[in-house]
Amino acid sequence: MAALPPVILLVGPTASGKTALAFELAARFPCDIVSVDSAQVFRDMDIGTAKPDAATLARYPHRLIDLITPEQRYSAAQFRADALREMESISAAGRIPLLVGGTMLYVKALREGLAELPQADAALRAQIDAEAAAQGWPALHAELARLDPDTAARLKSTDAQRIQRALEVLRLTGRRLGSFFAEQAAHTLPFNMLNIALVPSDRSVLHARIGERFAAMLAAGLVEEVKGLRKKYTLDAGLPSMRCVGYRQVWEMLEGSLPAKELRERGIYATRQFAKRQLTWLRAMEGLAIVDPLDSRASTTVIAAVEEHLA
Question: Residue 169 and residue 177: Cα distance in Å, rounded?
Fold first, then answer.
């Protein structure tokens, strides 16, 4: 591992202090920051994504932000390809990639690779749905058990969505799902990665920070930002950009389905739920060095870990 180029990954829930710590590391070590944030890829979405301002970006340039318009979509597979390209470029320049963010699906895709499953086939799915309507999902689960017993053993006989997908893959490719995931497991990273996760020890402090942060976003003009996006682009509520936390709630308010007086509390609640999901992802990930950002020694602990990693 020591012969591989070093990389630092800094992850954590929203409002856990990732950005400030990343800037401290970038000021101390020869690091270039790579964003791991599915909201910051959108251009003109600055306030609600907590994107650094122009002066900060001039001092600490970020890669993989402002990639697409809010009308477009960006996948975990695209992120992995783009991140690997940026990591290789940074390493080739003799510097250290510092990946920072809280989009856990991106983190998982980067660290573990992605199973290259075939795209959905609408006609085949309709055929499987018709078979299920006639025979019942338990019967299709029994068919799956004959053809792909390992996958069937992990699924309930009523899990329609997953049974359908497993049968679809089988009929399209003749291969079991497990064979694709075995290939995924072989996608090792050509880097020596230090994985640091900021996990606050006191959830109430994190909730308070989230509340302050969303209130600050509203004060900074989040509603006006969304109004501007609606004028500039052709958007709808189903786009990934408008499903981002904060933007979804403002959209609902502008559409009249959310009273303006409830926007602040609804946005804070949605952000807290988002942070809860991020922490659930982190608990399931292996190989993370857990640091409590509420500990006064957190910065010192992370700096020491980075120094050891780079030694």
Answer: 7
| Radius of gyration of the chain measured on its C-alpha atoms | 22
> Cβ-count burial of 59 within 10 angstroms (0-12 exposed, 13-18 middle, 19+ buried)?
exposed
Give CA–CA dist 158/239, Å, rounded: 30
How distant is the alpha carbon of residue 210 from its chain centre? 18
Provide the pLDDT for residue 1.
56
Within the chain, strands assigned E span 6-11, 31-36, 62-63, 96-101, 192-198, 289-291
What is the Cα–Cα distance from 248 to 25, expressed in whole angstroms? Answer: 33
Single-letter amino acid, residue 114: L
Q: How far is CA 180 from CA 80, 106, 175, 214, in A?
A: 17, 19, 8, 41
Of the pLDDT bands very low, low, confident and very high (cuts 50, 70, 90), residue 303 is very high
Can you give the pTM of this predicted structure? 0.82
Chain segment 84-98, per-residue pLDDT in tens: 999 999 999 999 999
pLDDT at 252: 98
Q: For the chain, what is the mean pLDDT?
A: 95
All domains in the chain, ordered by first residue: 6-114+187-310 (3.40.50.300), 122-185 (1.10.20.140)
Burial class (CB in 10 A: 0-12, 13-18, 19+), 206: buried
